[in-house]
Prior knowledge:
Mean pLDDT: 89
Low-confidence stretches: 83-89
Shape: elongated
CATH class of the largest domain: Mainly Beta
Order of helices and strands: EEHEEHHEHHEEEEEEEE
CATH superfamily of the largest domain: Cyclophilin-like
Number of domains: 2
Largest sheet: 4 strands, antiparallel
Amino acid sequence: MRELPAGRDALLLDFSDEDTPWRGALEVAGRLRAAMTGGELPTVIDVVPAETTVLVQAVPGRGLDHLGLRRALRSPRSARATAQTEGSGDDPVVIGVRYDGPDLDAVADLAGLDVDAVIAAHRETIWRVAFMGFAPGFGYLVPDRSGSDPLGALRSVPRRPESRTSVPAGSVAVAAGYSAVYPRSSPGGWHLLGRSDIALWDVDARPPAVLTPGRRVRFEAT
Length: 222
């Protein structure tokens, strides 16, 4: 883990040199969030995991307590919170999918599989939310190595050569080893496998997002 300055009141923790950067970032983000909840980091107002980094943001003008951050990462409380976040026993969010997407044949050709094998690989994989981004409620899902992981050849499927100007809400997609469900209609360059009726984002709900970093996800054919 490298510590990189991000202005006077923020720090970027970089995990790009690790074997599985997203897992390192997710683990550290979980520890720091537990420390925030426990009052151990009173000046920290947000912890944001990404693909290979974690941004730690402090109250503007008060700066970061670097020594406090290091203590928090070593504390038993944060270690327990990480174990709960990463544990294989947490109930996954089950997302029903109609596997009738326009890119099924293209994905099958790229992966060297037939369509049924593509659907089976996507459905049988246990996924975990590595981080959130792109749009409210949009979770970047990666195969959870602690669970079943039959994704195989689908990992090599890249983004589409050209993005669509509009992807329908609920579209279930894959690209570059990730999967996701589009929470709302938006442009997008991922391959569409199907569609779900799940509402991933509701501004009036508490919390508004169904998916959060660390949650497990399982897809089910409907």
